[in-house]
Specification:
It comes from Rhodocyclus tenuis. This protein is an alpha/beta fold. It has ten helices and eleven strands. It has a six-stranded parallel β-sheet with strand order 1-11-8-7-5-6. A three-stranded parallel β-sheet has the order 3-2-4, sandwiched between helices. The protein has a two-stranded antiparallel sheet with strand order 9-10. α2 links the parallel β2 and β3. Bound molecules: NADPH dihydro-nicotinamide-adenine-dinucleotide phosphate and 5,10-Methenyltetrahydrofolate. The site of 5,10-Methenyltetrahydrofolate has 18 residues, from α2, β4 and α10.
């Protein structure tokens, strides 16, 4: 058996065409959706992501601003930039690229973003709302995964879902969304005693670990749906060294799973599409006066 490929790149492209139409409709009413992306430092991978986000905005007819600050930027200076973006009516969404340099308290920065402009969904208020089952902005990566599952007609009610990873940006919100959709959810992490015991029980397995090709075919239940969130470089000495790979060993996993997301072309493009979706939502809410 070879698994069906859940094509995130194609679905993201489809969604982005829809967003363009919605942005045009908003612009006709005098509001052009605007996203600000703030990058502190010179990490090359972050630079690529930020460029991709800004390009996606341009293609969909959004206004966007890229704010690049030097690596030695103080927390106070960053907070000042955020305060200015909070007050800027042309900006509906603010994203501060993570990770931030170690000398800056990332939580304090995320809390400084106005909740109604927090298109990443990382502000405590938005996480609280999601936890209570009343979401305002759903974090982009887990939201993208849910869209892919829905598009793939994968039902979640009563299914055993296992999420590997418990980060605030992926693992935890992913588990909350699967739970809300009716799955029975297990969250695994680096202290989990017998990881394979859990993964082999999963009807839906989500890997958000940050370790190249960590999940192998023998850890997967035959027929499971495998979602690979990881974005890693293939280590030296392995086939395709230096290229992008996920947290799942695609070659062995696709022989066992019923459906699987590739890397690249799976969850990553969906994350960017959901960032545009959240920015549109923020702009639509301004037009409809749904906050303040
Ligand atoms: N496709 C996309 O759009 C996105 C992709 N990513 C990618 O997803 C991956 C995860 O990102 P993120 O959540 O930010 O990463 P973090 O490093 O914040 O979290 C990784 C999680 O994996 C767990 N973990 C690490 N090693 C093991 C192990 N050996 N066994 C079991 N669990 C383990 C950690 O456990 P513990 O908590 O105990 O340390 C932690 O909870 C990365 O590859 C990242 O690049 C991230 C964001 C978006
Ligand atoms: N505040 C904040 N919000 C984020 O959403 C956020 C962040 N910080 N920090 C880093 C992670 C990572 N992330 C990705 C987004 C898109 C791709 C993506 O488009 N990947 C393409 C490949 C891109 C390439 O070729 O490098 C793919 O998988 O096909 C990957 C990773 C968002 N993150």
């Amino acid at each position: 058996m070879t698994a069906k490929i859940l094509d995130g790149a194609a679905l993201a492209q489809e969604l982005r065409s829809e967003f363009k139409l919605r942005a045009e409709a908003l612009a006709a009413q005098g509001v052009r959706p605007g996203l600000a992306v703030v990058l502190v430092g010179e990490d090359p991978a972050s630079q690529v992501y930020v460029r991709n986000k800004v390009n996606a905005c341009a293609q969909a007819g959004f206004h966007s601003e890229k704010i690049v600050l030097p690596p030695d930027t103080t927390a106070a200076a960053l907070l000042e930039r955020i305060a200015a973006l909070n007050a800027d009516p042309a900006i509906h969404g603010i994203l501060v690229q993570l990770p931030l340099p170690k000398h800056i308290d990332a939580d304090a920065v995320l809390e400084a973003i106005l909740p109604e402009k927090d298109v990443d969904g990382f502000h405590a208020e938005n996480i609280g709302a999601l936890t209570q089952g009343n979401p305002r902005f759903v974090p982009c990566t887990p939201q993208g995964v849910m869209e892919l599952l829905e598009k793939g007609c994968i039902s979640l009610k009563g299914q055993e879902a296992v999420v590997i990873g418990r980060s605030n940006i992926v693992g935890k919100p992913m588990a909350l969304l699967l739970l809300a959709a009716g799955a029975t959810v297990t969250i695994c992490h680096s202290q989990t005693r017998d990881l394979a015991f859990h993964t082999r029980r999963a009807d839906i397995l989500v890997a958000a670990i940050g370790r190249p090709r960590f999940v192998t075919g023998d850890m997967i239940k035959p027929g499971a749906v495998v979602i690979d969130v990881g974005i890693n470089r293939v280590p030296e000495g392995q086939p395709d060294a230096g290229k992008l790979c996920g947290d799942v060993d695609f070659a062995s996993a696709k022989e066992v799973a019923s459906a699987i997301t590739p890397v690249p072309g799976g969850v990553g493009p969906m994350t960017i599409a959901m960032l545009l979706a959240n920015t549109l939502l923020a702009a639509e809410r301004v037009l409809n006066g749904q906050h303040c």
